[in-house]
Specification:
With 63 residues, this protein is of the alpha+beta class. It contains two helices and four strands. A hairpin with a 5-residue loop joins strand 1 and strand 2 (21-27).
């Protein structure tokens, strides 16, 4: 695990209408990540946005 994983453990993930998933950004707090996800989601596109936390082993965990 590197320093950015420790300091920016919250991810915003986007899934497009074809099922492709992309990391939108990494954030220090869940609240910050959720604010970004909500802002993007409110634009009315068909993409889905959600927040995940990177686990201690570097794996992504759904939240």
């Amino acid at each position: 695990m590197n320093d950015s994983t420790i300091t920016l453990p919250w991810l915003v993930i986007r899934q497009d209408d074809n099922g492709n998933r992309y990391r939108v950004g990494r954030y220090a707090t869940r609240a910050e990540a959720q604010k970004i996800a909500d802002s993007l989601d409110s634009r009315g596109h068909r993409q889905l946005y959600w927040v995940e936390r990177i686990g201690q082993n570097g794996a992504e965990t759904a939240n």
